[in-house]
Write a structure and sequence with these properties.
The complex is a heterodimer of chains A (236) and B (600). Chain A is of the alpha/beta class and 236 residues long. Helix content of chain A is 36%, strand content 26%. Chain A is globular. In chain A, 51% of the residues are buried. Chain B has two domains: 308 residues, ABC transporter involved in vitamin B12 uptake, BtuC, CATH 1.10.3470; 248 residues, 3-Layer(aba) Sandwich (Rossmann fold), CATH 3.40.50.300. Helices cover 57% and strands 12% of the residues of chain B. Classes of the chains: A alpha/beta (236), B alpha/beta (600).
Chain lengths: 236, 600
């Protein structure tokens, strides 16, 4: 579904990512981890078109996306949920969800179904559907941001630190929500710091270090691999 | 082990990088600016070209006014479109007393300065109430009204006939053919430029910028944004008033038409065209917007406004950051520092913070006490009758679901919002009605869920505003820490820091503030495992070695249970449980918060 080949990206002439490749197929969750500043968010932004890759390609269903404007990439079915819960503060919760579907017109019935599903997973959003998004707590805004992406029904979902600012108890339901979402045929990429909690829900994992792919493995082997990597470092 | 390893690695990395390029080119710009002003101020006289002498008198006076506009616009964030009025007040009032009433030039100048000062006060008053475009319109209307006023008040101003003055002694040669006037007019913009640089790099200047960028953050650092605006207007109006006083002998004649809106626009456009906030901007900008239409294209003088407009439009389209701003951006892009995994971490600094004293949480004294606190937002009850006691020196974890009122409570404690009912005490003193800056100055510091990082400032300056906000003399440990941070991050850019790193910057800022009570709002969100461990170490250090009281709002329950002495659980705005971590872990009322019972 999504394929990234030898991607280089950065800010201005400052390189951040070097030669990053990854692929996610429909129904699969790829977990990306790594230290702060390693380039995880930059990778997400480069795939979604917010900063132009200097080299390499991003393919969605074999169609190149690199160099396209973010809104065009969103139209073609790739959705990035940024960190720091970005919602429209001056709109109601329900209108925020409607904004999510703006990229994909028509089909009112499917939209209503999607909204009902969101309300099932996050009942608080239903309860507050008339409230301004600015009056939601940080965590509730994060739920809303996910909901916004969900109603857009993208082919590929990129999620930058969905756990940020959320009560820990909320992380498992959100992750199983993402799991179910993926199983319905969406390719999902999650960037997370909480690798232990997230890994069981993912299929494969990738660690980025200083802008490069350190390793890729099955998510179930991540713990072991990370343990090995750390021991190796101590020996050095 | 790991700490020393990282420090060694950090030192090596610094060596490899060699000398870092400057974060900004403010200082070189000052020197270039002074050189340009010196050349244009002195050279025409030395060459004996009186046309250029006169032209550059005007240009350099206008440049000085634009420098103050630049300061007011960017450093203090005040969008004034009426700076021409202040220059006009200085010039006209001096002319009235000197030219019409026979006062000495010095005495008349004092009156002119006073008038400009009062004008600045008038501008500052609306700035306390309105900001942004609203303020722009208020000051713009002053610029429109001013010439009309001069006409209407003809009894005092001589109306449309204007006032002619002659100050012969100012035109006498002093040295190398230079007159007093030429010397004064050349020196003054240089002083203005140096003053702008000096303020920007002072504590006052940094606090002014923070107040302009985030009034909220400024208040929690003990700064009153209103006072900052007020001071900025006063500095700018006095500075611009002096321009007016110099303008008078330079033109020997003032009339209402000389001070119409065009003049205020000119100052503003010079800043925009030159590069907003760039110290050299007003000089280059004024050359473009004034010299080009008035000198180079003098035969089209009737189309002057049109030319101003076209020039500004062209520059903004071609150079969105202004001429100097665009060059500066290119320079920065070539040599940006402060990114990647090592951009900001706290572990190398943990060692620095030495404290021998072993502090224990007090048994009987309370740093913070909330009594039946209620905070509503419209119909929503965010905090619904909370009672909470935080012992001096303890680490107090505040946990609860999203929307349970944790951040609302922190906002109340830091004075950013007020309780509707109930009260709270800080160190035994009632603080329910205290303003945020006063609370901050009693020794409270906080971080925000969305870190307040100012990308206009270097990474070190971002930390330094914490030091600026300190209410005590910095302790030895903090001084050493500050020196190390300055050496490491003095030229680094804060823009490319990742979210987690930004949090740590804010944490370090509040450490430098040396607050006695520190509120952390979800400090660990977005931190990696190792950064969490370092953060936990830091918090324990602050509490145990330095005796600080910590209130920690955090979703990472493992972290909270590792370091907290007391935990309070909030649910729907109420404190449902409070006690030691062990007791809370057994409390059946809070079991649902744990991931599959993983905690405890």
């Amino acid at each position: 579904m999504l394929k990234v080949n030898n991607l280089y990206a950065g800010y201005g002439i400052v390189p951040v990512l070097e030669d990053v490749s990854l692929s996610v197929s429909a129904g699969e969750i790829l977990l990306i981890g790594g230290e702060n500043g390693a380039g995880k968010s930059t990778l997400m932004r480069a795939i979604a078109g917010f900063n132009k890759p200097t080299k390499g390609e991003v393919l969605l269903d074999g169609k190149p996306l690199q160099g396209m404007a973010p809104e065009a990439i969103a139209q073609s079915g790739l959705r990035l949920v940024l960190d720091g819960h970005r919602v429209f503060p001056e709109l109601s919760v329900y209108d925020n969800l409607r904004m999510g579907a703006a990229a994909r017109r028509g089909d009112k019935a499917a939209f209503n179904r999607a909204v009902e599903q969101i309300y099932d997973v996050f009942p608080i959003l239903k309860e507050k559907h008339r409230a301004y998004a600015r009056d939601l707590s940080g965590g509730q805004q994060q739920m809303l941001a996910l909901g916004q992406a969900f109603v857009a029904q993208p082919k590929v979902l990129l999620c930058d630190e969905p756990s940020m600012g959320l009560a820990q108890a909320l992380l498992p339901p959100i992750l199983s929500f993402l799991r179910n979402w993926a199983e319905s045929g969406t390719a999902v990429v999650i960037v997370e710091q909480h690798l232990k909690v997230t890994a069981p829900y993912a299929d494969r994992a990738m660690i980025i270090e200083r802008g490069k792919v350190k390793f890729t493995c099955r998510a179930s082997e991540l713990d072991e691999k990370l343990g090995l990597a750390e021991t190796a470092e101590v020996v050095h | 082990m790991t700490v020393s390893k990282t420090m060694a690695a950090g030192a090596q990395a610094a060596q490899n990088k060699g000398v870092k390029a400057r974060f900004n080119s403010d200082l070189p710009q000052v020197w270039i600016g002074i050189a340009l002003i010196a050349v244009t101020g002195f050279l025409p006289t030395l060459l004996g070209n009186s046309y250029w002498v006169h032209t550059f008198h005007i240009v350099n006076i206008y440049i000085a006014a634009a420098i103050f506009q630049n300061f007011l616009f960017i450093d203090a964030g005040q969008k004034s479109f009426g700076q021409g009025v202040l220059l006009g007040l200085g010039a006209y009032v001096t002319a009235i007393f000197f030219g019409m009433h026979g006062y000495s030039f010095a005495a008349a100048s004092v009156m002119g300065l006073l008038a400009a000062f009062l004008g600045g006060l008038l501008f500052a008053l609306p700035a306390l109430r309105v900001q942004y475009f609203h303020l722009g319109f208020v000051t713009l209307s002053a610029a429109i009204v001013f010439p009309q006023l001069l006409m209407t008040l003809d009894k005092w101003t001589n109306g449309i006939n204007g006032i002619s003055v002659a100050v012969p002694w100012l035109h006498h040669e002093v040295i190398f053919g230079l007159s007093w006037l030429t010397i004064l007019i050349a020196i003054y913009p240089m002083l203005a430029l140096a003053l702008h640089y000096g303020i920007r790099n002072s504590r006052l200047g940094r606090q002014m910028r923070v107040a302009a960028l985030s009034p909220e953050a400024a208040r929690t650092l003990g700064v009153k944004p209103g006072v900052m605006r007020f001071i900025a207007f006063i500095i700018a109006s006095v500075g611009t008033g002096i321009c007016g006083i110099l303008y008078l002998p330079a033109v020997s004649f003032v009339s209402p038409q000389g001070f119409n809106m065009e003049m205020s626009f000119l100052f503003f456009m010079a800043v925009v065209v030159g590069g907003r906030g760039q110290l050299l901007g007003p000089i280059i900008g004024m050359w473009v917007v004034f010299i080009l239409p008035n000198v180079a294209l003098v035969e089209y003088v009737d189309y002057r406004l049109l030319i101003y407009g076209t020039l500004t439009l062209l520059t903004v389209v071609l150079f969105p950051d202004g001429i100097v701003g665009t060059i500066e951006r290119k320079r920065k892009a070539r040599s940006i520092h402060g990114r990647g995994e090592k951009a900001f971490r706290i572990d190398p600094f943990l060692e620095r913070l030495k404290g021998t004293a072993e502090h224990r949480p007090s048994e009987s004294e309370y740093a913070v006490e909330v009594r039946n606190g209620v905070k509503r937002f419209g119909a929503v009850v965010a905090v619904g009758g909370v009672n909470m006691k935080v012992r001096k020196g303890e680490i107090h974890g505040l946990i609860g679901a999203n929307g349970s009122g944790k951040t609302s409570l922190l906002n109340v404690l830091s004075g950013l919002s007020r309780l509707d009912e109930g009260s709270f005490l800080i160190n035994g003193q009632d603080a329910t009605r205290m303003a945020a800056d006063r609370i901050a100055n009693t020794g409270l510091g906080r971080t925000f869920q969305t870190p307040r990082i100012f990308t206009q400032m270097s990474l070190w300056e971002n930390l330094r505003i914490g030091l600026d906000a300190s209410t005590t003399n910095a302790s030895e440990g903090i001084r050493q820490l500050a020196a190390q941070l300055e050496a490491e991050f003095g030229q680094d850019n804060a823009e490319l820091l990742s979210h987690g790193q930004r949090r740590l910057v804010e944490v370090m800022r509040v450490v430098l503030k040396e607050a006695d009570i520190i509120l952390f709002d979800e400090p660990a969100a977005g931190l990696s495992q190792s950064e969490r461990a370092d953060f936990a170490k830091l918090v324990r250090f602050l509490s145990r070695n330095l005796g600080k009281t910590i209130i920690l709002v955090e979703h990472d329950l493992d972290l909270v249970w590792n370091i907290a002495d007391t935990i309070t659980v909030l649910e729907q705005g109420k404190a449902v449980a409070s006690g030691s971590p062990e007791a809370i872990a057994r409390d059946p009322a809070v079991q649902h918060m744990f991931v599959g019972g993983a905690r405890a």
